[in-house]
Structure formats: structure tokens, C-alpha cells
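We read letters as residues; the fold follows as C-alpha cells. Both lines appear below.
***
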Amino acid sequence: MQRIIKLITVSLLVFILGIFYLSLNRSSNYDTKFLVGNKLADIELKSLQSKEFFTNDDFKNNKYTLLNFWASWCAPCRVEHPYLMMLSKNKDIKILGINFKDKKINALKFLEELGNPYDYLAKDNNGKQSVNFGIYGIPESILIDSKLNIIKKIIGPLNEKDVKEIKEIIKS
């Protein structure tokens, strides 16, 4: 009997150590680069300012659309805001601002203070819609074309280099 208990204990220990070893060799980085080159998943986002919804059909007539996930409480969102204002002046791109886990009044004050670069304003109060886009922190942006192909994903605040790259994509 003691021999069986010893065998079970050793087997259990080997199993636990095996699982531990396999876990060490797995990449724990959350990578969403696989999204680039794929079609935008079907979306239904509620407007921040009205009762209407935005779906994929709303973006098919745009040459390019930039989906930007932001919040008033997000310091890096303030850093990227001037770059969004620059992009908003380009007639070949429309910008969808998806307000993430924020209060409507705070979001609107943010835009009143810094300017509104968005052609569309949607909300994601609980963060569930953002998961569908592979968003795991804000700000993040996704550039799509008129066929709803994901061309580029930008993790973190937009900067001068990102704006140049987006403008180059739009020109070509």
C-alpha cells in the first residue's frame, strides 16, 4: 500500500513539474498583430451622443477609417490628441472615436477642451466591445480601408511617426 502511495505522489509531482515546465516555455505576450490583413469583425457600437448604433456598413463609404480607443481619464490619450486633430484635417480618412470605460460627461468635456477630431463617436462603457478588437490598453488605434481590411494597428498613443505612416498609406 505504501508503494502505491509513493507511486501516486511521484506521478503527481512529475505531472505538476511537467505543467510548470511547459508553462515557462509559452509566450505570455498578448500579440494582436495577427489582426493586420484580416477583415474587421462585425461591430455594433452605440453612439456616445445619441441612441443610434454604428455598424460596419457605416464605414464602407470611407476611403480609410481610423478606429481610436480613448478615454478622458487616460493621460496618454491627451498626448496623442494633437495628432488625431492633425489627421482629422485629411479628407481621405474618417475617425471613429470609441470612448472606453468613461463617463459621458467627462468624455464630452475632454473633447470640448481639446477639440473633437472624431467624425463618429461611440462608447464602450464596460470594455466588452474593445475585446473584439484585441484592445488591451488605451489608447490604441486600428486603420481600416473601404473594404474593411485591417491595415495597421497602433498600440499606445499616436505620434508623429504614426501620422506620417498613416498619411503615406492614404496617399498610395
Residues 36-171 form a domain with the Glutaredoxin fold (CATH 3.40.30.10). The first strand starts at residue 44 and ends at 47.
